[in-house]
Design brief:
Pnp Oxidase, Chain A; Thrombin, subunit H; 2 helices; 12% helix
Length: 212
């Protein structure tokens, strides 16, 4: 019986998580059968392999990537090392988190959280930003000020799924004169769905694992 796994890759503009299953073992590593999202992986990429039901994580390299007729992929993973999947702190890290935002009122923020459509123009900043499980810091195209409320769409780990999030600007920073941004802002989450929090926590731990 195949064992479900998740491949995490921190290389590239946006961190990538790909689900799959172990199809065979070898002395060097394992061969995986993965979903179509594996098309974004690259040969030679350093990745972390999380195995369902195991307390161990495996750091290694993608050494083979072949597309099957049904659009899935056969992926060869070669081990570098194995380590315990311990729970660490959640520091502020840098990674690619695709977001869009718009200034909001209390009413429009509640409508956004309730799943309604809201009026306004969405802005998509550079996805490579500072983040933690409690908030984001990114370069903004608007002259935002401390206390401003934002509606945010958030994607995590290269997944197609997006979450409806709201945040409050808690600090505003100047940017270089040659920057296309109006300012840089630190935003604290006010509404963050539980599954988005779980995904951010997982992303944080996976990035730490990839640095071991």
């Amino acid at each position: 019986m195949s064992v479900p796994v998740r491949i995490f890759c921190a290389q590239g503009e946006v961190p990538l998580m790909v689900n799959g299953a172990i199809s065979s073992h070898s002395d060097a590593g394992v061969q995986l059968h993965c979903e179509s999202g594996a098309s974004k992986l690259q040969h030679g990429a350093k990745v972390v392999l999380t195995i369902t039901g195991s307390e161990e994580k495996r750091t290694g390299t993608i050494t083979g990537l072949v597309e099957a007729a049904d659009g899935t992929f056969v992926v060869d993973f070669t081990d570098h090392e194995r380590h315990s999947a311990d729970k660490r702190d959640f520091p502020r890290l840098h990674a690619g988190l695709p977001i869009s935002y718009m200034p909001a009122t209390t009413e429009s923020a509640q409508a956004w959280v309730d799943g309604e459509s809201v009026d306004g123009e969405w802005t998509t900043p550079d996805p490579y930003m500072n983040f933690s499980v409690s908030g984001l810091r990114f370069d903004a195209a608007h002259n935002l000020k401390q206390g401003d409320l934002l509606n945010i769409t958030l994607q995590i780990g290269g997944a197609d799924e997006s979450w409806r999030v709201t945040g409050r600007v808690v600090r505003v920073f100047e940017v270089p004169v040659d920057s296309p941004a109006a300012c840089s802002v630190a935003v604290s989450f006010e509404h963050l769905p539980t599954d988005a929090l779980d995904a951010l926590s997982d992303l944080t731990l996976q990035i730490q694992d990839s640095l071991l």
